[in-house]
Every structure is written in C-alpha cells, then in structure tokens.
Design goal:
The protein is an alpha+beta fold. It has one domain. It has 4 helices and 7 strands, in the order E-H-E-E-E-E-E-H-H-H-E. The strands form 2 sheets. A 5-stranded mixed sheet has the order 1-5-4-3-2, with no helix packed on it. It has a two-stranded antiparallel ribbon with strand order 6-7. The termini are far apart. The structure holds zinc ion. Zinc ion binds near residues 37 and 61.
C-alpha cells in the first residue's frame, strides 16, 4: 500500500483557491501530483453540543490527505449515503486513516460518494 502523505499548506491554499467543494463535488486536480483525483468526504458530528462537521480531503492518486473540523455552516445539509447503506460501518468509522481512505475510495468507486451537498432555507 502507498504511504499516506500530507498536503503542504501551500498545496491546500492552492486547492482552496480553485475549488469550492460545497458547490462542486466532483474530483479535482491535485496540486501535488496533477492528477484529477482529489476527493472530499464530509461527516456530520457534534462538538461541545453544537452541530459540527469533519472533513477529509485526499488524493486517490498520490495519497496525500488533509483533515479538518469545524462548525457546521447554518443550513448546510450533507447527504451521507454511506450512513444509510451501512450504518454499522459508518458508526464504527475506521480508526486508522489508511483504512478510512481505502473505504472511502471503495465507496467512491461504487458511486456512493461523492455526496450531495445542499442548503436548507432558514
Ligand atoms: Zn495527488
């Protein structure tokens, strides 16, 4: 298995400039290796009893990854078909990053990912 690496701050900045995942969930060009293989998975969670989200962005080609957590933007609706299709695996949430990314890639290949993202009117 390929080793996982981290996106550098500069690569993340380039990605953030070009890509708006909330608007376009398709694969994106990787600032590190140039392949159109950057994928993102968002997961609803709670932090300090407030709605929050965890995000993983990774490149399926060069295995660089970045994780993030933050408050859930008000009105953002993340459809998470993984949770509906396989609640047990979703609940378990793979403990290690290599396993998690391998699973997310399988879900992507099966068409469960990418997710669809929407906004609820206030
Ligand atoms: Zn890459």
């Amino acid at each position: 298995m390929l080793q996982l690496g981290r996106f550098t701050p500069m690569e993340l900045e380039a990605l953030g400039r070009e890509r708006n995942f909330l608007r376009d969930q398709s694969e994106w060009r990787c600032p590190a290796c140039g392949e159109v293989s950057v994928r993102t998975y968002l997961r609803n969670t709670r932090h300090a009893d407030r709605p929050a989200m965890i995000g993983y962005t990774w490149c399926a080609a060069c295995r660089r990854v970045a994780g993030s957590t933050g408050p859930l933007p008000p009105g953002l609706v993340i459809s998470d078909r993984w949770r509906e299709l396989d609640p047990e695996a979703w609940e378990e949430f793979d403990r290690t990053l290599p396993r998690l990314l391998a699973r997310l890639d399988r879900l992507w290949e099966k068409g469960v990912l990418p997710q669809s993202i929407g906004w609820k009117r206030p």
